[in-house]
Amino acid sequence: MEKRFNSLSLFEFQTQFPDEDKCREYLANLKWQNEFKCSKCGHGRYCGGNGTYDRQCTSCRYIESPTAGTLFHKSKVPILKAFYIIYYLSTSKNGISSTELSRKLALRQKTCWLFKQKVMKAMESSQNFPMEGKVDVDETYVGGQDDQAIGRNEGKKKIMVVAIERKGKGVSRMYGRVIETASKKNLKKFMGEHIGKQAQVRTDGWTGYKGLESEFPKLTREKSEKKGKNFPQLHRSIMMFKAWLRGVHHSVHYLQAYVNEYTYRFNRHKMKEGIFENLMKRMVSKPPYPYKLIIS
Ligand SMILES: [Zn+2]
Questions:
Q1: Any idea where the ISXO2-like transposase domain is (predicted)?
Q2: Which residues surround ligand 1, an ion (CB under 5 A)?
Q3: Total structural domains in the chain?
Q4: pLDDT band, residue 1 (cuts 50/70/90)
Q5: What is the spatial distance between Cα 150 and Cα 146, in angstroms, rounded to a whole number?
Q6: What's the pLDDT tens digit per position in 235-259?
Q7: Over the range 221-255, which residues count as b (16 or more CB within 10 Å of their CB) and which as e?
Q8: Residue 149 and residue 99 in one domain
Q9: Domain check: are 212 and 236 in the same one?
Q10: How far is the CA of 36 from the centre of ligand 1 (A)?
Q11: Confidence label for 223 from pLDDT (cuts 50, 70 and 90)
């Protein structure tokens, strides 16, 4: 899987963001774009805040920073280092572990881990672009006996439903979700959120998919014994995801976050839009994701 990201080189990145001031300016422009709207009272006019890129509402006097109410909200990571984390996560082919980030940026590993979780939140699918054409769906176990290197200490395996969109002999997109059970309800919800109604969906003979033809008229269920032969791209995609997961992460805790991270990069391997800019936009438009929520 050779992937090239259409992205900033490290040199370009460092030229664009030499200091914290430039980072704040970038965030302010991204957050407010052409129009300011006070998040307390909705008023549309502001004056400069306290000398930074903060903005103060001229009606209720509330001062808002470029990071307030975003995924950067109250982060312990200094803003320039936060930008580096996002840069590495978006441009490294296989991502980067919190341990490696900690070494590169002279931050505590725990601090990097926590901020990385926020970036992974930003990588969550928007569900705005359902898969079309040829789509294969199947469930797989992660952790436990089927996959001994992962989750040995956790002692629990998780079920994940995976869907791929096929293009020619390859795979153009992939989504996955950790589910409690492979029930019809869970499968239907995932498929409804990621697959277009007119897609030619293929599944195996599992009863959980029975009756979903009402949602996806072109759905076909194939006999399970043929599965290995009939779904080669899907099973290869799953294998590669698991291999990647073993390399970066050794438990099935927070599995969904890692699924989000993997599929986010995978689905953009041919994208024209800069992946760094895309991730920044998401960081600014999503609400804060505090520690309490992350570990819950
Ligand atoms: Zn206001």
A1: 130-267
A2: 38, 40-41, 43, 57, 59-60, 62
A3: 2
A4: very low
A5: 9
A6: 999 999 999 998 877 667 789 999 9
A7: beeeeebeeebebbbebbeebbebbeebbeebebb
A8: no
A9: yes
A10: 10
A11: confident
